[in-house]
Each structure stands twice: as C-alpha cells, then as structure tokens.
Amino acid sequence: MVDTTRVSKVINAPLRYAYGWCTDFREDDSKLTGSSAQRRIVEKTKKRAVYVMIYEGADGKEKVAVSHVTLKPPNAWSLEQFGEEDYETGEYRLKSLGKNKTRIDMVFKETWKDIAKIPTIKEQTDSTNKSWDQFIAALEKDYEAESR
Fold it and tell me: What are phi and psi of 73, to 5 degrees?
C-alpha cells in the first residue's frame, strides 16, 4: 500500500536562507519538534546527507530507519528513507514569494510494511503539518535573530 501526502507552507525568510537552514541536518533537529527520536549523522557533504533515525514504532518498540538525502541547490532536495515500518520518499521544493518570503512544497510517498496500525492520510498530513510548523517557527526565529 502506497500513501501520498502533500504539504505546502510559507516561510518568512528568503529562499537562500530557508534552503541553507532546511538542509543543514543536525543530530539535535528532533528537539525542535519535541520528538524523542534520535538522529545520528553518518555523512554530510555538499551533495548529500545520510543519517540513521532511532524512534518508537507504532508497536511501542524501538525502530530504526536510514535516510539518504540528495541536495539539489539552490531550491530542492529529495529524501529516500528505508525503515523497519515503511519505505518513504520525499521531494522538497522551495519557491521565492518575494524578498523575505518562501514557499516550501513537499510530497511524500510511503510504502508501508506489515505493521499493526498504518496511519491514515489525514494522520500523516496532520503530523507533517505539526512538525513543519515547529521547524518553520525555529527557522524564522533564527532568521530574525541573524537579521538584527
């Protein structure tokens, strides 16, 4: 079963700043959303990032996923994630909406493995919206602080 989730958000920061912030993968990024997931960076270069996520699965047990991100400057990147519960791809595109405004468009496709409770499209979309609202709030706070 393949699910597709689409989310768009507006960021109050210029495209160049938004791209740099969004693609500067860090091990403590999960703290921005209050998640207990752990991220371990395996490789980070100008062309890609590879990291391992350790998180609580739908069954309450520890799970692992490996993510490979391909950077496509100046305005896009893609994700391929191999996890114990699913296989996911993500496409991220930024579009300038003016001097200090950028839109991010995201499309995720998930192929679920045999797990007890597959989240609905609404649950997946709500979760993505919530996480990205928190990421964007942190991004905008950082941009505002650096702009002073």
Answer: -60, 150
With a threshold of 0.70, does the pTM exceed it?
yes
Nearest to 94 by CA among 24, 23, 21, 18: 18
Question: Could you give the 3-state DSSP secondary structure of residue 142?
Answer: helix
Residue 126, token pair as written in the block: 């709500």
On the question of a cis peptide bond just before residue 14, with omega within 30 degrees of 0, the verdict is no
**Are 90 and 34 spatial neighbours (Cβ–Cβ below 8 Å)?**
no
- Hey, is 55 helix, strand or coil? strand
List the chain domain ranges. 2-147
- Phi first, then psi, for residue 11 (nearest 5°) are -115, 130
Strands 86-96 and 76-83: antiparallel
Which CATH number is 2-147 given? Answer: 3.30.530.20
One-letter amino acid of 96: S
> Could you give the residue ranges of the DSSP H alpha helices within the chain?
15-22, 121-147
Q: What is the pLDDT of residues 126-137, one digit of tens each?
A: 999 999 999 999
Phi, psi of 22 (to 5 degrees): -70, -25
